[in-house]
Amino acid sequence: MSLLFSPLPRSTPQSPLLAAILRMTLLNLSILTIALSLIACGNSDDNSPGVPSTPDTPSNPTPPTSPDTGENHGGESDNGSNDTADTNWLPTGGAATIAADITRPFLQIIPNLPSNTLGGVSPGRELFITHWTPAGEGRVLFDGVGPLFNANACTQCHSAEGRKPVYAANGELNDAILFRLGNKQGLAHGYYGEQMQHQSITDSTGVKIATEGKMQYVNTAATDNTPAGIRFNFTPTDANQPLGDTAISGRISPQLVGMWLLNLIPAANIIAASDPDDSNNDGISGRVHWVNEGREQKIGRFGWKAINTSLRIQNANAMSQDMGLTTSVFMEPNCTVNQPICWTAANGGNPEVSDSSLDAVTDFMTALAVPERRTGDLQTFNKGANLFAQTGCASCHTPKQKTGDSIRFPLLSQQTIYPYTDLLLHDMGAGLDDGVKEKNAESFEWRTPPLWGIGIVARDAQARFLHDGRASTLTEAILWHGGEAEATKLRFKQLPSEKKETLLTFLQGI
């Protein structure tokens, strides 16, 4: 039975958060009691991305040259049957791997986690699925959402099966997409700020607070140079507050896979893989997104533009921008100085999400497993892996990484994993230039998104790809690539149809 739905042993509760959770249902009594008593033992070991823990000797974590015979740059073998290579390519998340043929594959707990690491997992799950209410309503410690927000639960955007549908009929949009606002100089909109919130609460007098506006989409036709795509149109609630020349960038919610494993990749390895000046003349110039945190600079790892340096900060940022919840990381409401209603609305505490709750959510996401890679035909899988390397996909979507040490979750230490990312920023060309600079990431730069689990996502006919979901298929996503990936795209386009299908079959298996 999956631990996600299994009760933990019973013990005496030791915090107000537990008392609040226990009032939800009697079932949660058995799940949560020992959990919060263990939280007091320590938070997730948020290894600073700026300082590696105990990495291997720093080296460029390049992909295996070939999953068959090790020929130079993935020379394609006839049989793809090398046993050692097969073993190297079939695992996915090391000790965090689970079977893929399971329901809710993206919300399963890592098997064999020691009991002393489970303190935050069950309460973290409750917080993850909880529908938060406005301040003063509903359950204590689960209130304070808004006054402006995009979703009132993590599960409104993140799906256990992959990605939630984004585009509805007649230009309408579902909740699993949000919109970043800005320009190429990195300036947010003076009224709306850096993110548009399309939902709002009703205040204590019964008056509905006005939302910021409504976003709709129109499909764009394919041209000789670009595939079919999406364009967004914004209708402000207050006609006196137009967007002007502020750019709109849609951001869909990705699948949650191996988040803590990415957090554990040593900083030295990420830095070693960067080549901002293209010193090796291979056309790839990935660079680290150095993010200022106080007086330090740390490596950005999370978010479409790698703006968040750790999983904990990623979670706090989502709570702030998407749900309107304050934390010790982001204490201010997600409102600009020109939105006084936000600053006078009631709040659910100061902060609204306690450190223990934020740590519990981070523990839960740390414990999420990685679905194994899937193949019914190992020979075809290996040939597709060769093509993945030969076309140049692996130059950015680095197949193999190795984690450093984790004090809090030692099971995840020194694990060989296959996330298919270098966590670097890359110039993706004019077609994917969204016009929005975020921190030190230019408008045309994007973090290489991890591809593990992408094949499970692609099973859903409604699944969308790329940062704004403009691509309805993996092929369309590839064809939108430009900039540093232009040559790779051209090599893909030049493949015979049979080899294209082999490469796509490989992607559907990882």
From TrEMBL:
Annotated region described as Disordered, given as residue ranges: 46-90
Alphabetical keyword list: Heme, Iron, Metal-binding
UniProt keyword Metal-binding, yes or no: yes
Biased composition (Polar residues): 78-90
Top-level taxon in the UniProt lineage: Bacteria
Transmembrane regions listed in the UniProt entry: none
Domain (Cytochrome c) ranges: 379-510
InterPro entries documented for this protein: Cyt_c-like_dom (IPR009056), Cyt_c-like_dom_sf (IPR036909), Cytochrome_c_Peroxidase/MauG (IPR051395), DHOR (IPR010538)
One Gene Ontology term of the molecular function aspect: metal ion binding
Protein's name in the database: Cytochrome c domain-containing protein
Organism annotation: Psychrobacter frigidicola
